[in-house]
Amino acid sequence: MFVFNAMQCSQAAPVITVGSHVWVEDPHLAWIDGQVTRIHGDNIHVKTNQGKTVVTNVYFPKDTEVPPGGVDDMTKLSYLHEPGVLQNLGTRYELNEIYTYTGNILIAVNPFQRLPHIYETDMMEQYKRVALGELSPHVFAIGDAAYRAMINEGKSNSILVSGESGAGKTETTKMLMRYLAFLGGRSGVEGRTVEQQVLESNPVLEAFGNAKTLRNNNSSRFGKFVEIQFDKNGRISGAAIRTYLLERSRVCQISDPERNYHCFYLLCAAPPEDIEKYQLKNPQSFHYLNQSNCYKLDGIDDASEYLETRKAMDVVGISNDEQEAIFRVVAAILHLGNINFGKGEAIDSSVVKDEESGRHLNLAAELLMCDAQSLEDALIRRVMVTPDEIITRTLNPDDAIASRDTLAKTIYSHLFDWIVNKINTSIGQDPRSKSIIGVLDIYGFESFKCNSFEQFCINFTNEKLQQHFNQHVFKMEQEEYTKEEIDWSYIEFIDNQDVLDLIEKKPGGIISLLDEACMFPKSKSQDFSQKLFQTFKNHKRFAKPKLSPTDFTISHYAGEVTYQSDHFIDKNRDYIVAEHQALFTASNCSFVAGLFHSLHEDSSRSSKFSSIGSRFKQQLHSLMESLNGTEPHYIRCIKPNNVLKPGVFENFNVIHQLRCGGVLEAIRISCAGYPTRLAFYNFLDRFGLLAPEVLEGNYDDKVACQMILDKKGLRDYQVGKTKIFLRAGQMAELDARRSEVLGNAARVIQRQFRTCIARKNFRSIRNAAIVLQSFLRGEIAREVHKKLRIEAAALRFQKNFRRYIDRKSFVTTKSSTIVLQTGLRAMIARSEFRLRRQTNAAIVLQAHWRGRQAYSYYTRLQKAAIVTQCAWRCRLARRELRMLKMAARETGALKDAKDKLEKRVEELTWRLQLEKRLRTDLEETKGQEVAKLQETLHTMRLQLKESNEKVVKEQDAARIAIEEASSVNKEPVVVEDTEKIDSLSNEVDRLKGLLSSETQKADEAKQAYCSTLVQNEELSKKLEEAGRKIDQLQDSVQRFQEKVFNLESENKVLRQQTLTISPTTRALALRPKTIIIQRTPEKDAFSNGETTQLQEPETEDRPQKSLNQKQQFSILQENQELLLKSISEDIGFSEGKPVAACLIYKCLIHWRSFEVERTSIFNRIIETIASAVEMQENSDVLCYWLSNSATLLMLLQRTLKASATGSITTPRRRGMPTSLFGRSFRGSPQSAGFPFMNGRVIGGGLDELRQIEAKYPALLFKQQLTAFLEKIYGMIRDKMKKEISPLLASCIQALRTKTPRSGLVKGRSQNNFVAQQVLIAHWQSIVTCLNGHLRTMRANYVPSLLISKVFGQIFSFINVQLFNSLLLRRECCSFSNGEYVKTGLAELEKWCHDATEEFVGSAWDELKHIRQAVGFLVIHQKPKKSLKEISTELCPVLSIQQLYRISTMYWDDKYGTQSVSQEVLASMRHMTSDVTKNTISSSFLLDDDSSIPFSLDEISKSMQNVEVAEVDPPPLIRQNSNFMFLLERSN
Question: 847, 1091, 1243, 1468: least surrounded by Cβ within 10 Å?
Answer without folding.
Answer: 847
